[in-house]
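Notebook, student rotation project (T.W.).
Task set for the rotation: take a protein with a known small-molecule partner, predict the structure of the complex, and write up what can be learned from the model alone. Partner molecule chosen: fe (ii) ion. Sequence and SMILES entered below by T.W., checked by me.
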Amino acid sequence: MQVQVKILVENTTPVPGLIGEYGFAAHIAAGDKSILFDTGSSGALINNSRILGVELDKLDALVISHGHFDHTGAVMPVVEMNPALNVYAHSGIFKPHYVDHGVGNPVPIGTSFSLKDLQKKGAVFQEVNSFTEIIPSIYLTGGIPRTNNFEDAGFGFQTEVNGKIVADNIPDDSALVIRLPEGLVIISGCAHAGLINTINYCLQQTGCAKVLAYIGGTHLAMASEERIQKTIQALQDLSIDSIAVAHCTGFVPAAKMQQVLGSKLIKAETGMVFNY
Ligand SMILES: [Fe+2]
Ligand SMILES: [Fe+2]
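Predicted structure of the complex:
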């Protein structure tokens, strides 16, 4: 199976005419399947897909990584373009999501639509809360166990339980995994579960020993020096060919990873295309 991954939305772009937009979205052509992974935060997806030759109205599946606005902002237009579209995600994407930047004022950052809104437009919501093969050789992780002691979901995320604002470790955070004979291609939105937790869980669940590529956010932008160093060490210990970091990675963590990992480390931006 040939796989092509196009970055449709990322914070930045080196290509004139494309729009850089806070968030993430990628198109995956895998064999004869057309899959959209996340949608960015608003309209860039539509503009960039047209320029990059992605037919948004001919999707076989929409996969949502987690319930933050910068990954779900264009879900409704995409659903409207594709009658009876299968939408795969963890059920937790619909719960309230907030962020508090340390001033005691939770700001809503969740989805702008409900499950009912999706269904009213004819979408078929496929709940994936645990590791599932959604298309032959293509898997969605569902919730990712937080197994190591140096990664966390990120600063200030909150949700609401029984009317009370409480800390949120974003259990809905999920990654897409494509299994090829040579190894795995892993695509994540923000990796709130942790970059290393995510990769290790994909290896464990598939029984594969090798990662061809990780593509997506890593949520290291606010990470401690200790976490960055432990992440780099873990990446060196893994059998991984390429890490295309995006979105919430941050310049300094990306630069520190690049210093050690060299050409294995790529800064993924809007318009980049990866073939496997
Ligand atoms: Fe994000
Ligand atoms: Fe996020």
